[in-house]
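Friendly challenge for the regulars: who can give me the structure tokens for this chain first? No prize, just bragging rights.
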Amino acid sequence: MPSIFRTPGDRTAYLAAYDEMLRRWPRPSLRSFDTGLGSTNVIEVGDRGLPPLVLLPPVSVSATAWFPIVGMLCRHHRVFAFDVVGDAGRSTLTRMPRSGADYADWLVECFHALGLERPAVAGHSYGGWLALQLAVNRPSATGPIILLSPASGLYPFHWYARLFLWLAEKLPFRPPARQVLGAQVHRGYELDETFVALMDAVSAHVRTHVLFPTPLSDDELTSVRMPTLVLIGESEPLYDATAALERARLLLPNVDARLVPKASHLLPMERPGFVDAAIEAFLEEAEAAVRIA
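First reply, four minutes later:
Bragging rights claimed.
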């Protein structure tokens, strides 16, 4: 498989921006291991005795982008943030996945390597699509799932968003990160400069090799039996947020689906306190339900 980096210089320049972003994390440690799709990098943070929480990032962003909220989440969880194989980050791809099921099998391999048994999984954007693939294809491997502005899995992208996302990987030149990110945040939100620099480094030096996310079928969604939290910003630009939440409520058997005010697509960055509180309350309720059962 081709590397996400065309030259050694691309790799050096991108990883410098990645490491700068990682400095925003509270005492992170990195671990990597081989899987059937390639070598996988994981950022770990939090006390080892705490319950595990797996974080799956948006496309072209890497695990480092959880920096605004990870300090909150690790107060109650041992956090494992994955760099997706074939995407921006420190993971490498050796075999291109053919379907969402391949990603689900990759995640199960990662869980085994980390010694995780049915961890809670939170996915933002593309990471939400990956979490849904895991829930559908390998349901016995995961605990509760959290979908933050999930990409396409619940409802199709607007045609213009789909076209832009498809073209973004095809064109030799990309618009500045500030312009792209500015279209994905609520009005008045100030973008983090280190994050903008990271995304400019992605545009300049990285070419991803991932599957394009597509909506799940009605039958697939009704098969998702584990507790599920869905949070979508009221100004979501990529798809119809209201329709996505309605479909989630209609088809997911055990779901808490909410529209988040004063938020757009970069939900964990725009409303980190709200998202952290919602996740903690949701997981506490899910754990209580298990104890009662």
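The chain has eleven helices and eight strands. The domain at 8-285 is CATH 3.40.50.1820 (Rossmann fold). Your move, everyone else.
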